Amino acid sequence: MTKSSKLLNALAKAVNAGGGIHSTTELAFMLGVPSDPAFIKFLSDCVKRGLLRRVVKGFYESVITPPEPETAIYKIIKKLRSGVLNYISLESQLSYTGDISQVVMGRVTVVTKGRSGCFDTPYGVIEFTHTKKPVEQIAPNLYYDPDIKMYRARKEQAIADLKHCQRNLHMLES
User: Fold this and answer.
1) Regarding the domain delimited by 3-67, which CATH topology (the fold level of the hierarchy) does it fall under?
2) What would the pLDDT profile of 37-96 be if each residue is shown by its tens digit?
3) Domain boundaries, the chain
């Protein structure tokens, strides 16, 4: 079995287990090889041959067994900032709840305890905004959304985040 076939087989099994977006290190682990420059070159070749799609630097998806398009961006968010609190807030959450009339398209705004940054993916732009607020202060104002398997801000928290980040408040309905 070729290395490419082993990769596709591992990706198919990962999708059955709820996977879909994988880091370079995870893919190397699945194949039992080191994550070295030769492996990164192999992944680059798989992208060129159309077996993999690079969703953001260091993260890939199978083109044969891609994740669900509706939830793929949330999987990428969790991979990019794993190990820290992340929650959907700001304009994305207020649009979701109908508290602003504009529909945010092609962008997800996320508040994180990790680093700020913007990432352009095939599923849209992910905008991370760092918060210094303690988790104990934020947690009571969040709820878990099982559809995306992430936390979302309640209206009050999303508005507080907008004010804290000094973002445009004119679009609020009330």
Assistant:
1) Arc Repressor Mutant, subunit A (1.10.10)
2) 999 999 999 999 998 999 999 999 988 878 888 889 999 999 999 889 999 998 899 888
3) 3-67, 71-164
| Token pair for 64 | 């044969």
Question: Comparing C-alpha atoms, which of 104, 109, 86, 91 is closest to residue 159?
Answer: 91
CB 35 within 8 A of CB 25: yes
Strand partners, 107: 125
How far are the Cα atoms of 61, 105, 113 from residue 56, in angstroms, in the given order?
10, 19, 20
Residue 136 token pair: 């104990």
Would you say 95 and 104 are in contact if contact means Cβ atoms under 8 Å apart? yes
Residues 152, 168, 128, 106, CA torsion sign: positive
